[in-house]
Amino acid sequence: VDSLFVALLLLFIYFIRHSSSTRSFILAGFFAALALLTKQTALVMCIPAIGYAFLRDWKRTLILIVTATVITGGVTLAFNLFSDGWYVYYVFELLNYQTEWLGISEFVKFWPRDLLAHGAIAIAFLLFYFFKSWRNQKAQLFGVIFLSVLAGTYMSRMKLGGYDNVLLPLY
User: Fold this and answer.
1) Interatomic CA distance for residues 171 and 159, integer angstroms
2) Taking Cα atoms as reference points, which of 25, 30, 40, 18 lies closest to residue 169?
3) Can you tell me the distance from the alpha carbon of 50 to that of 141, in angstroms, rounded to the nearest whole number?
4) How confident is the model at residue 95 (pLDDT cuts 50, 70, 90)?
5) Per-residue pLDDT, 65
6) DSSP annotation string for 14-56
7) How would DSSP label each residue in 57-90?
8) 62 and 26 in contact (C-beta within 8 Å)?
9) 78-93 as b/e, with b when 16 or more CB fall inside 10 Å?
10) Max CA-CA distance within the chain?
11) Between vectors from CA 1 to CA 33 and to CA 163, what angle results, nearest 5°?
12) Residue 112, pLDDT above cutoff 70
């Protein structure tokens, strides 16, 4: 599931990055919906990029939002109807009980253990690229995506049960 999620997230990012036509925005919405249906963490990771796209072209971004909402809502409604309500129970209601956060020591350990130990060189290159060309739209988008993916993986890792697999989108 994690590899599929990363592939769908990358396709979403690709179509946001190359969003020069209405078709690109529809496909970005399609892949955002599929990523969200694969892992709910996609919501945290996609919304900032959608906000970035909204600032660039708000009319077409509304098409992206409608596409993602219709697909996600339609699939959720269909799955819920075919499962006699079990889909919403497992996906949304049980999530309310999975809110136990790890201790403060784990919040601190995330940075050296999970982020810097495995990605220090990549982060250094990313920061160099971003600060060198921060006025470039591509660099701005990558900065937004990096921060949103970092936030999503951090939130997933700090929940009880979050293991190394939640770090996959960050790498």
Assistant:
1) 19
2) 40
3) 10
4) confident
5) 97
6) HHHHT--SHHHHHHHHHHHHHHHHH-TTHHHHHHHHHHHHHHH
7) -HHHHHHHHHHHHHHHHHHHHHHHHHTTTHHHII
8) no
9) eebeeeeeebeeeeee
10) 54
11) 115
12) yes
